[in-house]
Amino acid sequence: MNWPNHGGQPEKLKQLFNIKMDRELLDFSANLNPLGPPSWLKATLDEHYEKITRYPDPSYSKSILSIADHEGVEQDNVLLTNGGAEAIFLVAKYFENKKAVIVHPTFSEYERACKHYDIDVEDIFYEQENSFNLPTSVIKEKIKENDVIFLCRPNNPTGTVIAEEDLQLYLEEGKKTETYIVVDEAFVDFLPTSIPSLSTWLASYPNLILLRSLTKLYTIPGLRIGYILAQPTIINVLKNEQIPWSVNSLVDAVIPKLLEDGSFLENTRAWLSEQSESVHGILAELDFYISPTQVNFYLLRDKKHPKRTEELFYFLLEHGILTRHTHNFKGLNGEFLRIAIRAKEENERLIAVLQNWRNES
Ligand SMILES: Cc1ncc(COP(=O)(O)O)c(C=O)c1O
């Protein structure tokens, strides 16, 4: 089976599985915010329409200033990128021909980017049987032997968050051997306010590189907005590697307004806290395993039938629900489904179908 590499491709999946269905599939496979894009965004893009007739400001000065203010860092700590994906590939380029560790299961693009730049990658694994905790003693050892460790916090696909004390330990160890810790924070805005971004740590840890994306929070995968936060020396090297005008003028125009929209973020956190509590509670009662997630997606497996995940995937699909298979997440081998938290009525639809599965299985 030629499973697609990423979520959010309902039409492709319909074709692949030859599903004849007039109504649209409910897409729980992409982990985007159902509240987005913000209601004002369309009008603002229209307002800036004439900007497409000019090249963007190559220094993206207004956007960089707003990102630096938003993150509490200096402007020379920031590099604007064409989505989180470009951020990943630029950082991989920085470590070309070196040695890296990737902790799986995680986002597959770290591995692809490392391969692209001939990085010698060692795979290690979260402890699945131990709530997907990090194997801290193993990582400590690996830090000594490698140039960079790629971590995702919160992690895609588990939704778990590496504890601050563990990260501090890795960064301190890394300082001794000049090993860099790259932390992808693409989903950080979905965390409760009690777990902030690591951006304020940049001042204390020269070996910390943060990757960010605005894609998931604002539901704008088609716009492409991301950034890197790191020491100015690293930012300068990466800037030289970046293709000219990598970020377009419309994106450059809307970034300050996106970052200022505090009420959108508040509403998102309120929706997520309410919906995730309710969904997780009901699914646990129905005897499904849910990874200890803190964000807008989770891994699910039927505790009663842990070997029947693929069957469950098809059952959901036949009932109009698309989930994310986990065949290309190393260490999961398709044994779980990744499912997003969506709007209330959609979550209720998912739960009703899972209830049917439980009654029939
Ligand atoms: C962990 C993680 N980082 C980065 C990205 C890429 O983000 P963007 O769409 O902004 O390129 C994704 C997309 O799924 C992701 O899951």
UniProtKB/TrEMBL annotation:
Cofactor section: pyridoxal 5'-phosphate
A Pfam family recorded for this sequence: Aminotran_1_2
Aminotransferase class I/classII large domain sequence ranges: 24-353
Keywords, in A-Z order: Cobalamin biosynthesis, Lyase, Pyridoxal phosphate
SUPFAM superfamilies xref list: PLP-dependent transferases (SSF53383)
Pathway recorded for this protein: Cofactor biosynthesis; adenosylcobalamin biosynthesis
E.C. designation(s): 4.1.1.81
GO biological process entries: cobalamin biosynthetic process
Single annotated GO MF: threonine-phosphate decarboxylase activity
Catalytic function, reaction form: O-phospho-L-threonine + H(+) = (R)-1-aminopropan-2-yl phosphate + CO2
InterPro entries named in the record: Aminotransferase_I/II_large, CobD, PyrdxlP-dep_Trfase, PyrdxlP-dep_Trfase_major, PyrdxlP-dep_Trfase_small
PANTHER family per UniProt: HISTIDINOL-PHOSPHATE AMINOTRANSFERASE-RELATED, THREONINE-PHOSPHATE DECARBOXYLASE
Role: Decarboxylates L-threonine-O-3-phosphate to yield (R)-1-amino-2-propanol O-2-phosphate, the precursor for the linkage between the nucleotide loop and the corrin ring in cobalamin.
Identification of the protein by name: threonine-phosphate decarboxylase
Organism in which the protein naturally occurs: Ureibacillus manganicus DSM 26584
Classification of source organism: Bacteria, Bacillati, Bacillota, Bacilli, Bacillales
